[in-house]
Amino acid sequence: MARPSLKQERQKIILQAFTECIAAKGLNATTLDDIALKSQMRRSLLRHNVGNRTELINQVAEYVSTEFETIWRQQRAQYANEDSDEWLLKTLFNSNPDEQYQALIPAFFSLLASAHRYPEVTQRLKQCFNVYVDDLTKELVRHHPRASENDCQQVSLGIVGIFFNWDSFMSLDLGAEIAKLNIQLLHRLLSTLEK
Q: What are phi and psi of 140, to 5 degrees?
């Protein structure tokens, strides 16, 4: 297997550092100096390896989205042989998500809040959202053969919406009661596919 180039290694370090910075400070407040300090690289090396600020923002949107999609698909694969929909609770509504996922959440929502200013970020975050909806729709179609694909897609959209809402408020520590209501809502949506 070929070793990644030095430029690719630096790009990954820079994108990880930028992700951590925007998770801590937000996208608009993060400066190139912050990223340089976090990545332990000179600012000139940042620009050489990732380009200007807009290019860097587009690249970090790609990085964060790809990481989310990879985690989602790995989690989904763990339950590939399950015939029930209970895997959704274990995957999407896990009250103790892994550290990598938790570290990405604030960066994702910071990008989401600023996406209207960056067309490429908007497109990439839409793709990420659609990965969740499309993958979940396929799973629901498989688990609910009597339901139409449109019904499965609607339920998928509802579940993903609940999931993104749940993630966005996770830092508020709303407690077990809200988690329980979300799970009940998920079951209510899924029950519409049984008719």
A: -70, -40
